[in-house]
Design brief:
It is a single chain. By secondary structure, the protein is α+β, with helices and mostly antiparallel strands. It has two domains: about 325 residues, Glycosyltransferase, CATH 1.50.10; about 120 residues, Immunoglobulins (Immunoglobulin-like, Sandwich). About 50% of the residues lie in helices and about 10% in strands. The protein has 15 helices and ten strands. Strands 1, 2, 3, 4, 5, 6, 7, 8, 9 and 10 form a ten-stranded mixed sheet that branches. Strand 5 and strand 6 form a beta hairpin. It is elongated, with a radius of gyration of 24 Å. The two termini are about 25 Å apart.
Amino acid sequence: MFSLKINSKIKPVSLILCVILSLNGCMPAASNEQGQAGGGAQPPSAEGYGENYSAMLLEQGIALPESHARIYVNQAGYSLERGKKAVFALEEGVDTFRVVRASDKETVYTGEISALPQNNTGGVLLGIGDFSQVNQTGVYYIECDTIGRSYPFTIAQDSYEKLFLGLLRNAADVNLAENAQGVCDVSFGMNILMYSLQCNGTLYEEAYTHLADSGYEGDMVTVLLQMAQWLLSKQEENGSLYDDYEATAAFCGAITMSLDTFGIYQSSVAQEYSDAAKRAWDWLNGQKCDTDVRKMARFYAAAQLFKSEGKEQYKNIALEFLDSGLESYSDSRFVFYGVITYMGSQNIDRDLCTQIMIKLVDDTEQISNAAKNDALLGTGKRSVSENLDNILLLGFTNYITPNKEYTAIIENTIQYMGGLNEKGECYISNEGVWQASDETADRGFEWNAILLFGCSDMLKNLNDMKGSADGAEMR
């Protein structure tokens, strides 16, 4: 068991925005589901498995063809001190469930299932059961009469920390697409990871200490430098990447951010990155910028160059774009990463930044309201990609203006990835490894980066909340 130390110092970008705008939120009091202590150990039998005896037979060493569980849990693991729930594909008359310790088959908790008709999916009535009162570490599964049992899951003090370490260990485990879209994916992934390192650098340092102790060699800086070299290898003599405007703009922004992040420490790459960014920008300037998408892409590149060099030409391009009056700053990756960069720069328009931040918070509140209305999962979304989009915005807003509600939604979303969803499908294991699925087929480097960003932000806030509670008790 271990804990990861969090750097709670406000970085320059946070300081600027916190001065601009102070927003606070509070999490509604958690409700307690009814439940009672379970009975003694139960010997293996067909009772409780309904017509599906595969789990019972597997227990006896007899394997049957693969079947799907109808009790959905977070297979990536529950945190000991946080809420715990399961989703049930119900049948008539099923209203209770049992939490069983896998080591000795003892029922440790019996609870009630709340049916949620409004979440009927594909003709299946779904319900939810809360077992937050189970507060001992170990491996468990959930079972109930007729519909069988869940996959096993762990409850541990450091469940989220272990997931974070797994995500770090597998951050570079992606297939790099040799095309313009692959360049955009890597560039955006590098952007959010470098931002995450700036926000929670101490957390990453502590995490790599644990990874080194386990024999893992490498760190996020190495991964980012490798990704930068991959991008550089795709730049053509004319300065573009695949002669594609969006890919070249994404590259220009990412390599400029890499220059600012690593150039002062890696003199060998500083000039290479600087030359590559200039050639990319020169190529962009030679192309028509006559579509909305191209204007967004140019804004992103200009924002990164403005932050790096502070030149008026880049600032004017950024301001011209921002003054056009966008409905949202979170719908486009180019725009979102661009405004984060602009707000962290020197000599910015603070009134404009206030307007941007208000809109981003408004978008975040829409996510929050959707999650509140989602009694089943507390995420408001029903796909991996949509949930990752939410984590990206929630993580940014939550870092600038910490909010318990936002942290809870990120936590719910991470549990969704682990199997607590309406399909009961595990998308990411407790080792931080993506599982094969139609939903994860298009995953890329940015997906890994967003999960790391969201998970690091969640760990920081949970640590801060625990520290506040401990402090109150001491007083």
